Amino acid sequence: MTPVYKLSANSVKNGRTVYGSMLAGNTAFELPGDFQSIATVSVGSGGAANVEFTSIPTTGYSHLEVRFIARTNRADTIDDMFVQVGNGSVDTGSNYAAHRLYGTGASVGAGSAINKTQMEWYNQFTANNSPASTFGCGSFQILDYANANKYKTGRILGGSDQNGEGYVEYHSGLWRSTSAITNIKITANGSFRQYSHFALYGIKSA
Amino acid sequence: MAITYEPIATTTLSSAAASVTFSSISGSYTDLVLVSNWTVSTQNNLLMTFNSDTGSNYSETVLLGDGSSATSSRQTSATSIRVGFAGSASSKVINIINIQNYSNATTYKTTVYRWNSEEYVSARVGLWRNTSAITSIVLTASTGNIASGSTFSLYGIKSA
């Protein structure tokens, strides 16, 4: 990093001060690291029909990660995550696919959902009939999200445990487009309830 | 821009110990990530508890592969969450435990984690039925000790 020199009226006498950054000396300044927060949505008391991240920068990061806890108002004990992505707006065409491996607490299974209008990542959230205060949780990554030569792939590990019911779900996802991703929209069968929380991060590479 | 993902504490055991504790965890992050690489003195589970709560307030849903078959199971109203299993005294286990929104005072705390050993691969979701912010984590061998040289690193992630 090119050093920054600070000169003052006393520099001839006392010499210059050298900083590693123009912002150094500001007590709030810290080097940001390579895993950076881009945006966060915390659902308020009115709930939210969906969560959307827009204007995601296509430079500066190599990968995206979304970390979440969430509960919906669906009249059930579980709900699914549906993810659409796009450039400028989300793609609503039948350009998505997903494969899954999952456990119910009693059995294992696998499945797929292809040529869909969204990535269908099942059983990620708790819902209205779940025990109070329980939330589904997990994280998903979209790799090389800004590369203009590749279809975009993602993966998620998440689910919920409700002390007697629950799912652990491991999915892959595909968006058949080479466009850079600037938008991510997350929905469920129900609306998201208060205290649901989605945080988007960017991961840098060398 | 502040640091988003930063190390909080690391413990490397210089001698065998029954447990490892992270205490006085700051509430200034959004999520915690606990990364470990450990062995044990005898075949056993590694158990995780929060805030010194040893009541029957934990549960988990399990997906497990042993190289020949996949199974799913659960434990309910347990006194801890099982975050890894060593099939033998020499088995090395690695795990990454995500503890989401650990510091809010309104939701039960959920974890999603995966671990791998020489014998197994597993992904799990765990629950602690308590709305308190998590300020301490204890990892305990179900029997015997955690071996010397085992490492445990705790990280914090801040969202915007």
Structure description:
- The complex is a heterodimer of chains A (206) and B (160).
- Chain A has one helix spanning 11-14, and strands spanning 4-6, 17-19, 35-42, 51-53, 63-70, 79-86, 96-103, 108-116, 119-125, 136-143, 152-161, 166-175, 183-187, 197-203.
- Chain A is mostly beta strands.
- Chain A folds into 2 domains: 1-31, no CATH class; 35-203, Jelly Rolls (Sandwich).
- The longest helix of chain A has 4 residues, at 11-14.
- Chain A is globular.
- Residues 13-21 of chain A have low confidence and may be disordered.
- Chain B has one domain (5-157): Jelly Rolls (Sandwich).
So, CATH architecture of the largest domain in chain A?
Answer: Sandwich
Q: What share of residues of chain A is helical?
A: under 10%
Largest interface: A-B, 47 and 43 residues
Shape of chain A: globular
CATH architecture of chain B, by name, is Sandwich
Brief summary:
The complex is a heterodimer of chains A (206) and B (160). Chain A is an all-beta fold and 206 residues long.
